[in-house]
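Internal QA ticket QA-208
Title: Verify multi-chain structure generation after dependency bump
Assignee: T.L.

Test input:
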Amino acid sequence: MCLRQSKGIHRYFRKQVNFYADQLAPFKPLPLDQAFPFFEWGLNWCVAQNCHQFLIIHAGVLEKNGVAIIMPGFPGAGKSTLTAALMLRGWRLLSDELTLYDWKTNSLVPIPRPVSLKNDSIDIIRQFDSNAQIGDVVKDTQKGTVAHLKVPGHSIQKAQQSVSPRFIVIPRYDREADNEVRKVPDGTTFMRMAELSFNYGILGVDGFNAMKHLMRESSCYELSYNGDLDIGVGMIDGLA
Amino acid sequence: MPVEFDLCEMEDGYLVYHPGTGNTHLLDNNAANVLFLLLEHKSLPEGDLRWPISDTSASESPQSLTDTLESLKEIFLIEERE
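Actual output:
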């Protein structure tokens, strides 16, 4: 897996970069200044395409005191922002994008790397923690403006340590909403998680059994918050 | 027509996985009761399915039993025996 600068005229004019996986370029080239986010997206794509020994869900996953939470996120739900905030308040990051669930061992496998922040989230996280180390801001990408937040050392040092699932917390950002955590039924959560999985359908009956097992091992909640990250973090701390 | 399902009872109904299509459905308890009726007939000697539409044991649902049956037939590709 690598990035290579495009050849020909784009080596000198409107410079571009290509992403390669196993010598193949599955995507169209992007402007050179988008190289870092391109690498992140390519890495996610490789994991989602190849790691079918796991049930892969589009969700952040963190751990504190041995308690793991999975935060599946529909666009705009605030999953990445809340994940970043929890990480900055001491939770260990396993991933901000890809939950890898090994149903044979009932464990969540870490894949920590810089947290992808998009658009308003970048300034929100800057204001939330002035010590947050955020890399270059890249504008006009397919996901808008993006930047990456450095992961604390303890998350990297524990990258080999899996953890059992305990909570599934579905965040719902709504400026008008009351801040609350409420229990949600596991059947409905199953269906929402399946919708967010990259390989539920590919795994067939194994996917069904894996998701079923994950539901059996987890308590499911929905978290509504009005954008106040301290409150959001506090409510999740309360679960742990 | 052989029909196989994986079933799982959840807090808010039953999950049904249909290997033939790879689809998963969350049925509420009323719809699940109708499906169970279908499944009970799975073991008929003929090896296919019939359902007692007039059977009131499953008609406590506020939904139309016929409509529920039609939905289940469509979802799970169950063919009615002529």
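Spot checks passed. Chain A has two domains: 1-50, 56-239.
Status: verified.
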